[in-house]
Amino acid sequence: MCPLFQALALPDRGFVSLVGGGGKSTLLLRLARERQARGLRTAVTTTTRILRAQGEAAGPVAGDLSALEAALARSLTACAALPAPEPGKLAPPPQALLDRALELAGLVVAEADGAHGRPVKAPAGHEPCLLPRSAAVVAVAGLSALGRPLAEVCHRPELAARLLGVPRDALLTPEGLARLLTSEAGQFKGVGDPARFRVLLNQADGPETLVLARETAAAVRALLPGVPVAAAALREPEPVKEVFFPC
What we know:
Blueprint: H1 4-7, E1 14-20, H2 24-37, E2 42-46, E3 50-51, H3 52-58, E4 61-62, H4 65-74, E5 77-80, E6 82-83, E7 89-91, H5 95-105, E8 107-111, E9 120-121, E10 134-142, H6 150-153, E11 154-155, H7 157-164, H8 174-182, E12 197-202, H9 207-223, E13 229-232, E14 240-243
Parallel strand pairs: 1-8, 1-10, 2-5, 2-8, 4-5, 9-11, 10-12, 12-13
Antiparallel strand pairs: 3-7, 6-7, 13-14
Helix pairs in contact: 4-5, 8-9
Protein name: Selenium-dependent hydroxylase accessory protein YqeC
InterPro entries: YqeC
């Protein structure tokens, strides 16, 4: 199966924002490692908050220009972020640092959303925090949410229930997940151009979940035709399981 970059039709240069739930942090690291394997530099960042340990897992943490230049001189990956007021967390850096990171690395990937560990979410009014001029926005969702009550699996379930027109204890279906992903009140919020949008269905770690991924992908592409959709198990050595457009 093809690499994540190819499966999601991601650019080699520009800003990329990751939204949704169910694997954004893991995807961030996997994308950086794919680039490392190709000898390419990458800067990772956040537009919200991430754990310091997550940033350090990607590469040296740099909060100013000199630190960033030094980090990318000795490593193919660096994390452009500032210390957050909360202990053990990182906060977004200034846009000027991100612009310089783009010049130095060619690609900047940001975790641009939070889901409090839930596999799916519906965004509040202030979410997501997309990187300006994002060349691509990847909506991530965990397939473990399917067949379970929204209140158990969704961050901000009251917003998801309102979007879908169902009660909070309704079971999430592939069609419902597709609507959460593609709605302008869901993960498509703020994207504007469908050509910038991609969907990654994570946790496709067995035959049953792959069937659910196919049903969800068909519903996504019926709502937003032409959008690249891939099914993956991001914690496995070969993460991409199926691609729902020519790879």
